[in-house]
């Protein structure tokens, strides 16, 4: 025989779920201690390096940045190719499959990870340099 929960239990669980969701709303790049990188810092961070990236939906990618400005993005769907540059203090990407340039700010987090932020202020991804 199945026992029914009191009517207050589902409501209490919903409140707890809402509170835990609220705790994670503010992205790390907006928290104290996060530092926005300058253009020269972005160039040094990316040029000739490989990044392990996770987007907000939990998908993982590997980005390989050549010093000549080419980039290879490897993920579940295979490889994408493009060009990267630094404009002002932002990293800009143009993919071969989509000629629209996308520019992002990069923030260093206190724990040593980094986050890319879209032009509209939304989190694009979190990464570490390999």
UniProtKB/TrEMBL annotation:
Signal peptide start and end residues: 1-23
Alphabetized UniProt keyword annotations: Plasmid, Signal
Name of the featured protein: WD40 repeat domain-containing protein
